[in-house]
Amino acid sequence: MRKQIALLAAGLLLAGCSAAPKTQSDATPSPSVAFDVEPVALDGSGHKMPWPKRAWVVGESSDRMKYVESQARPPGVVDPPAGQGYGRYYVQRLDWAQCGEFECAKMLAPLDWENPDGLAVTISLKRSAIDDPHGVLFVNPGGPGGSALDYVDQFGEELRYDIVGMDPRGSGKSTPVVCSTGEELDRYLDVDVSPDDSGEVAALIDAERRFATDCRKNSGALLDHVSTIDTAYDFDLARRLLGQEKFNFLGVSYGTLLGATYAELFPDSTGKVVLDSAVNLGPSEEVSQAVGFERNLSEFARWCASKTSCELGSDEQSVTKSIKGFLDSLDSNSLSSPDGRTLTQSRAVAGLLLFFYTGESFYDAAGEAISKAIAGDPTMIFQASDAMTGREPGGYSPLIAAASGIGCLDQPDSGLKGAFAQWSKQKAQAPVLGHLIGPDTLCPVWTSAPRPRIAFSGDTETPVLVLANTEDSATPYEQSVLANRIFKDSILVTRKAPGHGVFGSSRCADRIVADYFNESKIPETNLECAS
């Protein structure tokens, strides 16, 4: 699975705002094609954890390597706190300590929420506290695997809440999924992810199986308990320990799945929720990420053709041809960098996609990086690729391990055959990047059985606020329109601009978000923000 999301702070843009009709559609997925799911018993007392009422039938995940076992205990897997059953976790105290300008604490949660007397995981939290807050606002920047703790740093006091970031289990400074060494990840990420023959197909699948096995070997049972449903349970534990009646939340990208999942499982405890740049909340992608990136490739090509500083071509077609030709050439002739590394086609594609996440503000850098790489210097492309995959001096961040562990538990599949069938559709929909991004072959060979794919009811007491950029490549706009349809009485704020993530990039949208949280005001109809 090579769909890791790079999380970058966007610049603050001036924006105007104008009213637009509220989007309504009869195309909301019907629960009639989903199946009912029984709640999960938590302990012998008969208490049951909330569980999705309905789930989509989306695949049997027939090729998963569920026979791979491990007794590993990654950092943060510990014995449970004193006490019995579920209650032992609700009497713990959060001991906040200074961490720079903020406060940090750790919380224990059951490794397996069905077995509260078993091992525990350690969850890290960070708080930016203010005087006289309206309450607590949990925030998450996406990923899965992006640091919610670091995201807290980006908030001022415009939102009159204590801002709390909680790294989801499996990621960041919470108990992490542990997979491979830096050298092993280098080899894994150098594998050709867009195979052209049976030999390359076999090499790709073998690499995915090795990586999945390493994750199981080094993460043990944790790998079965890092789903978004598990993290929703952790959020509710944190809400209770912080003394909050309602769970208020702002999530970007994958963070929208966290918010939607909590609202589904704990509707009576759900307060104000902002879903910024929604991931797909339906049974399958209406528009694939590859299509989103293809749109941005065309947008970049038009931009480049209009700039004398961009030397890749004089019109959209010639710019696209230059980029495709360069990427195609790397399939058989990789490029050496000054530091001795080798730029493969897969690495170059990852670097290119990073520029498309960020929108037009990075187009100058994208043009320069591609031009230099064509001329023989891939340094800038490597820098972008490393940022995309979390490669750092001395190793890798937990991003890939977290994204893989969480994503594959959340994502039922139709096996390897289904992955390659989907890739064929993707190539037809996105002629340039659809092939190069490749099939999603990791989750079909993962070592954990997936959780149900929730068929969201969209029932909340407080209307949900949905934000979206029209030219978002990572989470195509259509996905936020779907979220707007799913959540009854929700409001969609559309920003007519490229880039991934709206909040913090638009004064128009930021004002709406502030009014929503601070004053409990929400627009009566969907709105458009000019930029």
Automatic annotation (TrEMBL):
<dbReference type="Pfam" id="PF00561">
    <property type="entry name" value="Abhydrolase_1"/>
</dbReference>
<dbReference type="InterPro" id="IPR029058">
    <property type="entry name" value="AB_hydrolase_fold"/>
</dbReference>
<feature type="domain" description="AB hydrolase-1">
    <location>
        <begin position="136"/>
        <end position="502"/>
    </location>
</feature>
<dbReference type="InterPro" id="IPR000073">
    <property type="entry name" value="AB_hydrolase_1"/>
</dbReference>
<feature type="signal peptide">
    <location>
        <begin position="1"/>
        <end position="19"/>
    </location>
</feature>
<dbReference type="InterPro" id="IPR051601">
    <property type="entry name" value="Serine_prot/Carboxylest_S33"/>
</dbReference>
<protein>
    <recommendedName>
        <fullName>AB hydrolase-1 domain-containing protein</fullName>
    </recommendedName>
</protein>
<keyword id="KW-0378">Hydrolase</keyword>
<dbReference type="GO" id="GO:0016787">
    <property type="term" value="F:hydrolase activity"/>
</dbReference>
<keyword id="KW-0732">Signal</keyword>
<comment type="similarity">
    <text>Belongs to the peptidase S33 family.</text>
</comment>
